[in-house]
Design goal:
Elements lengths: L1 H21 L4 H25 L2 H6 L1
Helix pairs in contact: 1-2
Length: 60
Amino acid sequence: MLFKCIAVFAAGIPLGLWLAFKQDMQLAGLWGGLTVALLYSSTLGIWLCIKTDWISATLA
């Protein structure tokens, strides 16, 4: 959950604002920034699920 917050507030919103106002993409820029944040957080979540040693995690 922490990486989702970091993805949205550190990457998605600033990127969306930059695309919307500096690149003049308007609403599509805001959605684009949030889409990038969603892709980043889901990729990181999948990577963490794959790399976790579930056997040792359940025995701990």
